[in-house]
Amino acid sequence: MTSPPDRVAVIGDVGGHVAVLRAELVRLGADPDTGRIPEDLVIVQLGDLVHRGPDSAAVVDLVDVMLRGGQGRWVQLVGNHEAHHVADRVFEWPEELPAAAADRLRAWWSDGSMVVAAAFRAPSGDFLVTHAGLTAGFWRSVLDTPVTAAQTAARLNAWAGRTAGALFRTGSMVNRKRPSIAAGPLWAEAGRELVPSWFETRMPFSQVHGHSSIVDWETGELRGSAAVIHITSADPQTRHEVSRLGGGAIIGVDPCHGQEAAPVSAAWVSDRIGAVVTRPA
């Protein structure tokens, strides 16, 4: 990275839809053919690049271009669907990636090109970025309550390259049991685990996540308890949702692609940021 960035763009789950990702990169001013990213911009992609859509291998190829050509301005996070290929499998999926694409995911994980978390500071506060969001229970019992987003990202990224451990702790999406307020940052469900986990604990920083949504984007209805719905607002033009709690906000940017791409999706962008932190302590 040759100069400090002024803004960070967080791109949500891609789900195998390469055309959607290419279009968003162009909108942000990046070049998907060369990997060039404007000097004032850092792009964080939240994981779940693969599965569901028809172009998972092409998505992996495109991200590899961005990692090589972005001069450190592309931050690739691991999602639960990448974890399916780089760590012990905890769920079944009918689609198998081409071997070359799966090998590339494993290479990113082992060489540090794909990490768990990023952190940045904006005028509105400190932000932690992970795939599914950090529950209060995980922050407390596993990370020992770090007080800044940068410290938290560093502790999470100490797991980068591993194939087992607390990082891969599942929640109700896999266990099919009652929600866990200590579900891990690759698996926490937004409306049942992530947001409610912070009701009794003041948030030390704000968060941006993908993986799941409180809003049913097909109907516009909010899902979850009355308390979750009361603090959550939604923007159907971007498919972003914001839950406001004591100490910060939890911002969801999962567009919820299926086999067909969602009709709208957009990166969440914050300007006037400080340094983006991704390296482990």
TrEMBL record:
Gene3D superfamilies with a match to the protein in the record: 3.60.21.10
Domain of life of the source: Bacteria
Transmembrane segments: none
A Gene Ontology term for the protein's cellular component: cytoplasm
One Gene Ontology term from the biological process aspect of the record: RNA decapping
One Pfam entry name: Metallophos
Position of the signal peptide: none
Gene Ontology MF term list: bis(5'-nucleosyl)-tetraphosphatase (symmetrical) activity; phosphatase activity
PANTHER family on file: METALLOPHOSPHOESTERASE, ZINC-DEPENDENT ENDOPOLYPHOSPHATASE
Protein name: Calcineurin-like phosphoesterase family protein
Organism of this sequence: Calidifontibacter indicus
Lineage: Bacteria, Bacillati, Actinomycetota, Actinomycetes, Micrococcales
